[in-house]
Design goal:
The protein is α/β, with parallel strands linked by helices. It is built from 4 helices and 7 strands; from the N terminus they run E-E-E-H-E-E-H-E-H-E-H. The protein has a single domain, classed as STAS domain (Transcription Regulator spoIIAA), CATH 3.30.750. It starts with a strand and ends with a helix. Belongs to the anti-sigma-factor antagonist family. It comes from Pseudomethylobacillus aquaticus. This is Anti-sigma factor antagonist.
């Protein structure tokens, strides 16, 4: 699996552990979060530190996850750099998502 999960201070931290996030991983990615929310995990961090390439279908999947979490909880992204950060800026998704530098910052944001 290309996602790793751990709990930090009551927050579910999910790390995408591969450099390429593209259409081939979208279905499993979305299902992982549907299952997490169904299991009651409502404070979520998505760590994109390892991701060096992200296509539009992957961005769409992250948007779908935000919709899945919806009013039931919160999603904070962290670790988006380089091309990945540019994708969020170019599509103005940086205005839709809370994006911070590190997992520690994301956990702090959710616990504040």
């Amino acid at each position: 699996m290309f996602l790793d999960e751990k709990t930090v201070d009551g927050v579910s931290c999910i790390s995408f552990n591969q450099e390429r996030f593209d259409a081939a991983k979208v279905v499993q990615f979305k299902q992982f979060f549907v299952d997490a929310v169904a299991a009651g995990k409502t404070r979520l961090v998505l760590d994109l530190t390892a991701v060096k390439f992200m296509d539009s279908s992957a961005l769409g999947a992250v948007v779908a996850v935000l919709k899945t979490v919806g009013a039931r909880g919160d999603l904070v992204l962290c670790g988006a750099t380089g091309i990945v950060a540019e994708l969020f800026k170019l599509t103005r998704m940086d205005r839709v998502f809370v994006i911070v530098a590190s997992e520690a910052d994301a956990v702090a944001k959710l616990n504040s």
